[in-house]
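Dear colleagues,

As part of the handover before I leave the project, I'm documenting each prediction I ran so the next person doesn't have to rerun anything. This entry is a single chain, and its sequence is reproduced below.
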Amino acid sequence: LFGVFQEFNKILEVMSNGQLGVRPMLTDDKAPTTGTDVIGTIGGPTGSTLSRGAQVIGDVVTGNADANTAKTAAKLVPGNNLPFVQPLM
């Protein structure tokens, strides 16, 4: 039951850009959300993956590829959060 409340709160915080929800009520922390956050909240893991892929492709096509692009691309690799894979990224 608590997980359902937390998920609803996360959706509320992301969709209101950090203006509504438990965190803004209890603290002054109103962390802004990105487009990837919104897409990930609505589309789940598939939405996040598609959004990251679009960011990487956009950076490469426009010639703005940098270290952040490499980090984003590394998040697209399956198993990227495994401890023995992270040093390879």
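Helices lie at 2-15, 22-26, 35-62, 67-74. The radius of gyration is 16 Å.

All the best with the project,
I.
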